[in-house]
Amino acid sequence: MSIQVLVLGRGFVGEYLEDILEDKSVAATTTDGRENTIKWKFSTDTPLDFGVLPAATSSVVITFPVQGEAAMRQLVDGYLAYHCSLDPGYKSPRWIYLGSSRAFKEVPSTRFTKPDLDAGGLRTFAEECLINEYGGCVLNLVGLWGGKRVPSEWSRFYTSKDKLRNRLNDRSLHLIHGADAARAIRACICYKGELPAGRWLVSDDRVYDMLQIMIGAEHIRMYLEELWQDEQVQALLNARTVDEVRLGPSEVTKRIESLHFWSHFGIQPQYFYTIN
Prior knowledge:
There is one protein chain. By secondary structure, the chain is of the alpha/beta class. Helix content is 34%, strand content 18%. The protein contains 10 helices and 11 strands. Strands 3-2-1-4-5-6-10 form a 7-stranded parallel beta sheet, sandwiched between helices. A two-stranded parallel sheet has the order 7-9.
């Protein structure tokens, strides 16, 4: 059996992607086979059953983290070897991998910024492998939101005033809605001509103030009041009282520039987070 697009790991973005690929034949995997998906799980510890995965004639989208070069080779080589054994004429599809922006430390970082391999960890080495050995396209996504993923609720991750203190050093937050991430993937799938290999930073091309988003949470306000006893915090926020802290995009630094992606593929983000 063959299909046009295979999504390895339906997940959060995969749900949005299926909705906008109605004009193409699509198959997706989940670890439990829910909602008419293929039950399949990637593991470096056990042999992989590539026989349950259909041959993709257009693109394979990898949405889950792949840890290291060896794991990426295991995945791509294994998939290609299986389908080439069934059809010697089978041509490798486009490989599109969803990475993170963690490895980009320069301010600002663009498509042409070299990632910090140590900061990115094994996932970044997997990206390098896919790009250099298979001509893959990596979409380095920033903070995903949409549906039940609401940035204002991320205040729950700050469970102590020390965690909040560390965040105050860099309050910038970059976001991409799941629907726009899906549109970015579709743009790569439908790209006319040879899809450029390499990395693309993908955000809504705005910057948000994480403190502005979270300060409405009672415990965040409490932690901030406690931290105000530290003169260094007062100096950092350049205010005499908590109420005088200036909030908003103008108070933070834009670290991620994604204009290269939107301009090259001829589309624009459509969803932007609104702070209530």
